[in-house]
Amino acid sequence: MAPTLRVLGSTSGLVPGASFCTALVVQSGGDAFLLDAGAPVATLLPQAGVDLRTLRAVLLTHWHADHSAGLPLLLQRLWLHNSIDAMRDGVSPVIAPLYGPPTTARRLDLLRSFHYLTFDGNMRADNFPLPAHDVLPGARLVVASGIEATPYLTTHWSTAAAEALRIHNFGVPPVGYGFVVDVRGTRIAYSGDAGSVDDCTPHLHGVSLLVHELGHFTGDEVGRVAALAGVPRLLLTHLSLRYHGVAGAALATDEVRASGYTGEVIVAHDGLVIPL
Ligand SMILES: [Zn+2]
Question: Is the entire prediction scored with pTM above 0.70?
Answer without folding.
Answer: yes
